[in-house]
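Example 9 (inverse folding). The structure is encoded as follows.
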């Protein structure tokens, strides 16, 4: 599907990086980015987001490039989306809908599919411009409409009932996870969660550490479902390591809320391995975005080891860095080649041996601070 990308610069520093990321998202969704149209504004236009002149320019690009889809690198209101579709005569998708679509394609487990469907329905509930009576199939069909109910009212009611059913399913799955977590707690099993920006190499690192075969690919959101495995780390004994969904800037709030059950593996971990793509020019912003999401889900208090991955692509050497207080700050590795993995195992073992609860004891591992962020080696 031929797609045109639209980005509006509102003066933010990460505009170029965000636009490059949009192109990767579009490719991950299975579309072909044909042309990119950019503009500058101080604030969005209430009706068309981009203003009438820029909308006309986009309309010409649609015709000239035979575009089937126009994707905005921003969140659009339902009215803006409808107005743009009337103006451009093609389907218009915003960044939120694009990410939701990728999640829908990638969800494999029952829990993942439920979480994605809930997020999609919550997003689309405000955009009921087409019929939603296919939801009747969930309950048997004919005779569902109440007296005096319009088609839109029926659709909204069916949508609400489906959302309620999905939330009930997630609550049941949440209780199952809590039971498993309590069992781990009784066994005093140390838990580690891999977190990081999407495509930072978390699943490749997970496979290297636990010798598993979790799907890993050079694309955004290759992993949606949390996978946990036990590994034996000598003196530290049994350790549970969990691979989690990657984060991204402007991650839709519906997804954060819907994936809370999955992300709880992160919230209840004893240690976070914050995986960073060392070769990415936008790595500093990516670290900040991950920390913002961790704060949103209530996991910002958990100690982190910053794992600098893909050092082979960045021209760096494997090393374990400590600060002046002998606290581990960073481990430089390549999950692909295996360089530095022994140092990472050493770091996990050292922390696990201390056996300090993350919630109420001072960690011997440094949580990221401004000094950590500014002292990262420059890659040329």
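The amino acid assigned to each position is listed next.
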């Amino acid at each position: 599907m031929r797609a045109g990308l639209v980005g509006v610069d509102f003066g933010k520093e990460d505009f170029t990086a965000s636009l490059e990321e949009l192109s990767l998202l579009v490719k991950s969704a299975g579309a072909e980015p044909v042309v990119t149209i950019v503009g500058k504004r101080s604030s969005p236009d209430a009706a068309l987001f981009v203003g009438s002149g820029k909308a006309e320019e986009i309309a010409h690009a649609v015709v000239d490039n035979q575009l089937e889809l126009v994707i905005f690198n921003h969140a659009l209101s339902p009215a803006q989306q409808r107005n743009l579709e009337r103006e451009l005569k093609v389907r218009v998708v915003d960044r939120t809908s694009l990410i939701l679509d990728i999640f829908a394609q990638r969800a494999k487990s029952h829990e993942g599919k439920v979480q994605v469907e809930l997020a999609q329905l919550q997003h689309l509930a405000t955009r009921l411009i087409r019929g939603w009576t296919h939801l009747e199939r969930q309950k048997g069909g004919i005779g569902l409409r109440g007296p005096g109910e319009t088609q839109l009212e029926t659709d909204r009611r069916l949508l609400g009932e489906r959302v309620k059913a999905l939330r009930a399913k997630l609550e049941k799955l949440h209780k199952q996870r809590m039971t498993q977590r309590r069992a781990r707690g009784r066994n005093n099993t140390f838990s580690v969660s891999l977190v990081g920006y999407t495509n930072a190499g978390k699943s490749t690192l997970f496979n290297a550490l636990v010798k598993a075969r979790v799907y890993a690919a050079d694309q955004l959101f290759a992993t949606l479902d949390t996978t946990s495995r036990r590994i034996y780390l000598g003196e530290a004994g049994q350790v549970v390591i969990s691979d989690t969904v990657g984060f991204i800037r402007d991650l839709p709030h519906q997804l954060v809320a819907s994936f809370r059950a999955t992300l709880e593996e992160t919230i209840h971990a004893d240690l976070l391995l914050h995986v960073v793509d060392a070769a990415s020019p936008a790595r500093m912003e990516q670290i900040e975005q991950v920390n913002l999401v961790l704060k949103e889900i209530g996991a910002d208090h958990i100690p982190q080891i910053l794992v600098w991955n893909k050092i082979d692509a960045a021209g760096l050497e494997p090393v374990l860095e400590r600060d002046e207080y002998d606290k581990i700050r960073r481990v430089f590795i390549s999950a692909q080649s295996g360089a530095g993995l022994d140092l990472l195992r050493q770091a996990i073992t050292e922390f696990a041996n201390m056996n300090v609860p993350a919630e109420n004891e001072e960690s011997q591992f440094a949580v990221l601070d401004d000094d950590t962020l500014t002292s990262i080696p420059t890659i040329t």
